[in-house]
Amino acid sequence: MYKKERKSWMKHLDFTILDIICLELAYALSYFMRFGRKNEFLNEEYQRLAVVLILIDICVVFFGESYKSILRRKNTQEFKHVVVHATIIVAGMMVYGYWTRQSDFSRQIFLMFWGLSMIFEFVGRSGLKNFIKKKMMNDRNLSAMIVVTTDELVESCLKEFENLPYREFAVHGVVVVDAMRKGEIIRGIPVVANADDFFEYVKNNVVDEVFINGNTIASSQALADDLLEMGVTVHFNLVHASKLMPNKVIEQCGNYMVLTSSMCIATPRQLFFKRLMDIVGGFVGLVIAGIATIIFAPIIKKQSPGPIFFSQIRVGKNGRKFRFYKFRSMNVNAEEQKKELMGQNEMSGLMFKMEDDPRVFPVGRFMRKFSIDELPQFWNILKGDMSLVGTRPPTEEEFAGYEARHRARLGIKPGLTGMWQVSGRSDITDFEEVVQLDTYYITNWSLALDIKILFKTIQVVVTGKGSK
To answer: For this UniProt entry, which segments traverse the membrane (predicted)?
Structure first.
């Protein structure tokens, strides 16, 4: 899933909220400096002006370009913008006072507010920009991008990505398609693959996005199609782009204008609400998991000595590995026993499912029937490794056997539930059908679909349908 860049005034909602807070603080401080504590902001007209102040600021942001290139501005440029912004706000407040004729607003308040708002806004914006910059300096917070280009353009292309003050991606490697340069370091970036082993690299490593740059790259359409089939987002330099795939947007990638295509393109607002659902659901789920721990922990210990929880490294979004938690429902040596039971695997493909699995002890069978063993994964959801709805994360062993098309399942965060779980779970015995269901979910994703799957999940869990 690719996060579409905001194109409207809402792009910098964080700075909008910050400015409103700074303006209100400056206004309140100006009021108390003028009237003191004895007159505790009781004048209705001044209270009304505090609300009008917010509306004026929103109008200035909406109709102006207050935050254009704000992340790239130097301090002197930022201060100039702050002066202009504060001056327009004060002018708007004075016009409001003149039109309403409700009272003679204190000119001292306007003057103090003008000065304080400039100081507060400048300090606030500078602080937020420094916070964002530090956050973006950490590659863990950035999308992993691979640059695909030609030998002629590789130096200039990588130079464009150097020293970007703010970015949402980190260049993890470069592929030179018309020269054998694998293993070299170009401008501090490793050449991670050649043209012939590029897809193998993508399959086995964390790759969120690929930037394609070069007018001599052969079969760009086929390259993009193959990457999209693997669930990777593709950016084309517009200078070299032509007719491409569906689900595409034009945006900026560093200093390049690119045509971006992905299996699913979501707006920041959609992703915000999806994450909000995860956080709320995660907290509620952890409470339920805590109650379940009190009930089932002693039974697990009695029936199968060993740890209460089972943890395992799983493969998440675009190859990221994380520790995955469940209530233990099998014997402690279940992984070793699995090798002996592979001949009885009822799934065709890269997953293991078996009815009446001898590794499962009695209460474990009950927990698995009603998905109680999955409750500790709400901790994974709160941490951000997983989502309420997504695709189930494979084990490292399963992932190692993936073909290129299977990687598309990892194009989004793994989920506690998903299309497979509400479509039959263990009743589905063909791994390719699981891949088809997951691919359908990703390409047709919406918040409404997530909510629909959550309600269906409740029904499936209560009835125990499709569990083994």
So the answer is: 12-29, 49-67, 79-99, 105-128, 279-300
Q: Which residues, listed in sequence order, are joined to residue 257 by a DSSP beta bridge?
A: 252
Residue 120, helix vs strand vs coil: helix
194 Cβ neighbours under 8 A, 6+ residues apart: 175, 176, 177, 180, 181, 182
Domain span at 64: 2-137
Domain boundary among 118, 137, 156: 137
Assigned token pair, 185? 């370091």
Please answer whether residues 266 and 300 qualify as being in contact, where contact means their C-beta atoms are separated by less than 8 angstroms: no
Question: pTM above the 0.85 mark?
Answer: no
Q: Please report whether residue 29 resides in a domain.
A: yes
| Structural domain includes residue 468 | no
Q: Does 62 share its domain with 125?
A: yes
Domain boundary among 213, 231, 262: 262
Provide the CA 82 distance to its chain's centre, in angstroms.
31
d(CA 381, CA 412): 13
Q: Which amino acid is at 415?
A: G
Do residues 143 and 132 share a domain?
A: no
